[in-house]
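Lab meeting, action items carried over

1. Structure of the three-component assembly. Owner: GW. Status: complete.
Input record:
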Amino acid sequence: MGLESIRMQRVKSFSFRWEWLLFVLILGAFFVNVRLSPHFWNYRSFMDALSVFLEAGFMVFPMVMVLVAGDIDVSVASITALSSVLMALSHKAGLPMGLALCVALLVGVACGYWNGFLISRVPNLSAIIVTLAGFSIYRGIAYILLGDKAVSGFPSWYAYLAWGYIGNTGIPFMLVAFLCCALVYGLLLHRTAFGRKVFAIGTNRTAALFSGVPVARIRQILFTLNGLMAGVAAIFLTSKLGSSRPNVATGYELEVIAIAVLGGASPSGGKGSILGACLALVLMRLLRYGMGLRNIPGQVMMVVIGVVLIGVVMVPNLVASRRKKVTVS
Amino acid sequence: MRRGNGAQIRRLRELGILVFIVIISLLVGIRNPRFLTFGNLHDMLLDTAVLSVVAAGMMFVLVTGGIDLSAESVLALTGMVAGILIKDHPYLSPVLMLLFGVVFGGLLGAVTGLVVAKGRVLPIIATLSMMYIYRGITFIVSRGEWIDAHEMPESFKALATGRIFGFSNLIAVALGVYVLLYYFANHTRTGREIYAVGSNLEAARIIGIPTDFILWLVYTLSGALSGLGGVMWVARYASAQNDTAAGFVLTVVAACVLGGVSISGGAGTIPGVFLGAITIGIINNALPMIRVSPFWKMALQGIIILVAALVNVAIARNLERAQLRERETLRMVRYGA
Amino acid sequence: MGERILELRGISKFFPGIRALERVDFDLEAGEIHALVGENGAGKSTLIKIITGVHQPDEGEIFWRGQRVTIPNPTVASRYEIAAVYQQPASFPHLSITENIFMGHPFLRPLSRRLDWKRMHEKARELLQSLGSDLDPRTPVGTLSTAQRQIVEIAKALSINARILIMDEPTAALTKREAEELYRIMRELRSRGTAIIFISHRFEDIYEVADRVTVLRDGKKVGTWMVRDIAEKDLVRAMVGREITQLFPKAQVSPGKELLRVEGLSKTGYFANVSFTLHAGEILGISGLVGSGRTEVAHALFGIAPADRGKIFVEGKEVTIRNPLDAIACGIGYLPEDRLQQGLFLPMSINDNITIAILDSLTRRGWLQPEREYEVSSKMLELLQIKAPSIFSPVSSLSGGNQQKVVVAKLLAARLRILILDEPTHGVDVGAKAAIHQIMSDLAQEGFGIIMISSEMPEILGMSDRILVMCEGRVSGILTREEATQEKLMEMAVNIDWAKFREMDRVGVGHA
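Predicted assembly:
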């Protein structure tokens, strides 16, 4: 078999992908929004609509990988809160802002590493229970440190991270940073040996172990990456808010998981894509923006996200079981 | 006759928690004698009543290998609807309100159960979504407002303030629920089938247990108990708010794990969960007594979950080691020589 | 012999790509023990699953006490007083013996519908005692040994008054004494009029207890005989249907240098004091019953569950193996026993499956190089003659034999010198089996060292240069190809000189 024909076969196997469906939905949401508000298709407001909530988007990428590997992490938002609080406190204690940012990243890495260490090295300890404990511990430490106070007083350049634009192109800096991360993670998951091994672990963890894939080390790395990106999210979120308190990013873990799943990641492992997650993020933004235009309160959005999340997982299952029944009878 | 060491260890575990409870109580009592007064212990039990009821429902879900993160939102939504009802119809009997909580919560749980059992959605995803959905609906029905103590009739608030045999009504309700559930879990066919499903789903299906029904049932049960907890919560704190019990589900899971319930399914007892809930209640109650800032509560809770889970894993591991050693000695003994 | 209690006429069953059963007739009389034998993949399990209602036949009829019935599920099967005891019982590990026995048909108090624990415990104890066991019925089943679990399963079958009892390789994981205890129970049940269908690979079992024997081969029935009327070698011929020597083409190779040496390898509760050597060009067969520690030794060598004590030398150098990565770095590869659970990534493509273990050597600075992967996997596809539309088809779309070839391809692609093959031909069709044997022989000729674990006696005898027999976690002996016979192997697999081993455990000397 020549390599040429092998390449042809590979193209053929790409016939249907979840991403196409998301793309169509995005177009639909886009047109509905344009119909609702003539101002929507204004370059500036469109860019702003995209970059709202983008700080949480940073956590989506490693979350996709964690889900692909068949795990789950509900502690990311708490890590964000702890990173944010420690960064603010260390800056207040006299650390230059640049180093304070490093503190945020370090805290994220440390928390993620600890999660990953417990999950991958202690046998029979599930990711759910460890990250559920982490959910409580990390934000709990933030509360111990700061109580119900807030810390602010960051240098003015720091606000640029979340609010600034690249030159006078009108492209938000955060959006560029986001797209860079998307590229890095997309390549990591879909174009490297590491990414392939992540898929292998999620598809069949035992077989991966028997094939010499360093399962424990890779899971450890994934949770650490999750922590790192929670730290990145903390930097952007704090920049956006201009202050830090222990209750920042409450509920973000849910939205992050929801976006990853909507983007095609399966919580039972072995499936998921970075592109899908990006599209899902955009779709969620457009939905929320459209509802904002019609003055629909944010709580309704909670209901919508929940319904979408269940629907995305349930509908294919129901279709599959229906199909099975038909073939049996 | 040899009794298997598995059963012994499980019993030892419950004893262990009991000893832990006693030691903690004594230590706190030494620091602050007020802790061991009847009044304070009663308050502690009263605060634990809601937790223990919701944790019992969670236990059944955990036994089947699932998890119900929506419990806190079911609690909040039922509490809110009950609050609105009692505000508009103050003549409604409190007992009726408790029943309403069970039924309404049960309905909410039944929806979750359908999604898990028939929709084949992983429990963590399904209940995470339902947690969002029910919380959102809570905001919608309340239109963002909350219900105050003065909007509720005295008869309703008497659920918490009134007493039976010197104990608050709510404690009596919780105890009643525990007696019923103990009976259900250990002495009814359906109760045991829940354990069978959690222990080995495939084997349960093969011997004809309606596994889908059982899965649906545990989420419905968890919903019903969370609903009951919701009405109890509203009566206890005399207010129904939109963010009632936000984050409460963690405390509930902590109580279960502390009580020896296995997250991977199959194991968990009603008395164990009861002791787990009491332990959490004591810790929460003791913290202000020994002048620890309430901001420690959240982190402590997480640490408790983690330590309890690690202890569970360690126990299971030692059990396995002991079995292996036993197998080795048995081999030698059997062949004598 | 009594009344004809169950009769199957012209039963056929097709699975995608496989004809599992073809017009098989079978009958069972009350008060008989009817052995069902055949090689792996002959269709025994499928037949059993049809009787217990797990599978539905595509053709044919089932008669129960002369009346035509269908058995749509196991619950209905128990209504027809049919019960099955499996080699690895599917039980509820967290629950007590009593609950395992009565789950699905508990005793209830008449009015309250409350569980009658007292009566159930009593009845459970009674049942256990009638089977010669003094276990406490409150013991959780998870803490029992396999033999004890089987007794619980039999008690469960008795509790529904089963008149038709199916036992699927019940003795495979038992020691000789436990097996003898089981025979006693079986005879006892027979005398009470219970009909027993008994699947076994051990001729000893069949000649010990069975009245009649039915032989299946490749999904067809070869015949039914009274056990006393058929000699063992005729039975073997009926099962295999061809001369054994033709099937196994291991070419004689003079063994080369020592590749692997193991000294005093031990793991508490699994195996102790395992010592052997492996040379280049050699196939070392490991024989023994299921549960004798064969697979555990392989897992220790491959680093899945490392040993507690003992030394491993690869090409003369001592090595430490803590995980599969270490093992692969030492040149040790492992073909797992359970290919679906341990070997394959079903939804992933053939290409991804074959290259997963060698990804790092096919990448440039961590980046995937698809062309190099395609090259390797299409070469493997050709070499092993895997029948698939393309290297991008998901492995789930292949037949069992081709799936096994994919696992073999994954192992071969890694170019390791020492290969541990755990049941390499389990559950694959005859053609694929011959192909895999041919590959093994070729590999040995090229200078690979192969350790082959197998439950199939003819395979062990035909393919191995030397045979290591394990029993109860110990090496009970190593035979050369010339010394080995079926009888000798079986004898060594079930009997062990414990006095000698206690002495050895004490002194800590290996057995070579």
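2. GW to write a short summary for the group page. Key points so far: Chain A touches chain C through 26 residues (CB under 8 Å). The two ends of chain A are 40 Å apart (CA to CA).
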